Amino acid sequence: MNIVLFHSTYGLRPAVRDFADRLAAAGHEVHTPDLFEGRTFDSLEEGMAHRDELGRDELLKRAVLAAAPYSDAGLVYAGFSFGGSLAQHLALADEKARGLLLIHGTADIAEDAAVDELPVALHIADPDPFETQDWINAWYLRMRRTGAEVEISFYRGAGHLYTDPGLPDYDEQAAEATFEGARAFVEQL
Q1: Can you give the pTM of this predicted structure?
Q2: How many domains does the chain fold into?
Q3: Domain residues for 166?
Q4: What angle do CA 105, 109, 115 make, to 5 degrees?
Q5: Which of 60, 65, 108, 143: CA 20 to 30 A from 134?
Q6: Nearest alpha carbon to residue 59 among 31, 87, 40, 97
Q7: What is the CATH number of the domain that holds 59?
């Protein structure tokens, strides 16, 4: 399977590369575009400031350009936190998308978004300070209305970015369960 995996506002950190490497070892072709051009951040505030400085439109443009060379084959769009929101926008706009894998984050859904049974998997902390239960419930219903087939995995007690061992939210058990769930999701496509 051909996968494009977008990083969070922390940048393309080793945890994202390791996740991609593990998917590649399972037989998938994984692309990890660096939307921040080499910059990584140790704090959420610094990463968000950089994201905001670049602007959402610029980052979405970079994401589209990064995915374009691979999209003819039908991509699985994936992303961590903010990268998940970019992946979601691209997957809902790409009629050839094979799947959408969201880790730690979602995004608003356009009213006119429509897909044909797009497989979607969301892995998220419970509770998550950026993705409240009310938001996730509403997101799920809106995503189902688009025609997507959605599965959500919650990780009780994990912090927001629980898959990155270099961050305070890290939860080894939840991170491993997320990887195994992601691998199984991609392999069923």
Answers
A1: 0.97
A2: 1
A3: 2-188
A4: 105
A5: 60
A6: 87
A7: 3.40.50.1820
